């Protein structure tokens, strides 16, 4: 008869589960840059090479902006974020492409991405 012993079944189930574990993402290494005055909110540091931690869901620009606010921003979060997005007047480029062409907040961040935030807001 064709049957699988319980031990073989458990082993196969573990292998399948491990190979299909899409809920866990790998840490991502990305490059962030802030300019046009936005760098002033980040202790005057324009360029940041960061490693984003593992998380259950894929990294999107939505949760990246929250992570930046909580981990890199040094002062005046209201000048960088509004809700879960950046303030109007801050341009966002992903690999030199306007984020509006990529799905904005829903864009899934990939390993090696270069993301630039350019403030067009100037005092006077």
How do the helices and strands line up, and which of them pair or pack?
Blueprint: H1 6-19, E1 28-35, E2 47-52, H2 61-71, E3 81-82, E4 85-86, E5 90-94, E6 97-98, E7 114-119
Parallel strand pairs: 1-7
Antiparallel strand pairs: 1-2, 3-4, 5-6, 5-7
Please tell me about this protein's structure.
The protein is α+β, with helices and mostly antiparallel strands. 20% of the residues lie in helices and 25% in strands. The chain contains two helices and seven strands. The chain has helices at 6-19, 61-71; strands at residues 28-35, 47-52, 81-82, 85-86, 90-94, 97-98, 114-119. The strands form two sheets. It has a five-stranded mixed beta sheet, with no helix packed on it. The longest helix is centred in the first third of the chain and has 14 residues, at 6-19.
Helix share of residues?
10-25%
Beta percentage is 25-35%
Q: Outline, from the CA principal axes?
A: elongated
Largest sheet: 5 strands, mixed
Low-confidence stretches: none
Going by helix content, strand content and strand pairing, the class is alpha+beta
- Annotation field: number of helices: 2
Mean model confidence by pLDDT: 87
The largest beta-sheet arranges its strands as: 2-1-7-5-6
Cα distance, first to last residue?
84 Å
Radius of gyration using CA atoms only: 20 Å
Order of helices and strands: HEEHEEEEE
Strands, count:
7
């Amino acid at each position: 008869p064709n049957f699988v012993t319980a031990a073989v079944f458990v082993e196969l189930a573990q292998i399948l589960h491990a190979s299909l574990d899409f809920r866990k993402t790998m840490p991502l290494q990305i490059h962030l840059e802030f300019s046009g005055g936005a760098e002033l909110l980040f202790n005057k540091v324009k360029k940041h090479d960061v490693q984003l931690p593992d998380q259950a869901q894929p990294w999107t620009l939505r949760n990246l902006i929250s992570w930046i606010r909580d981990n890199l921003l040094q002062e005046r979060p209201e000048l960088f974020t509004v809700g879960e997005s950046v303030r109007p007047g801050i341009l966002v480029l992903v690999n030199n492409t306007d984020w509006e062409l990529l799905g904005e907040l829903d864009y899934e961040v990939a390993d090696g991405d270069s993301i630039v935030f350019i403030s067009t807001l100037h005092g006077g």
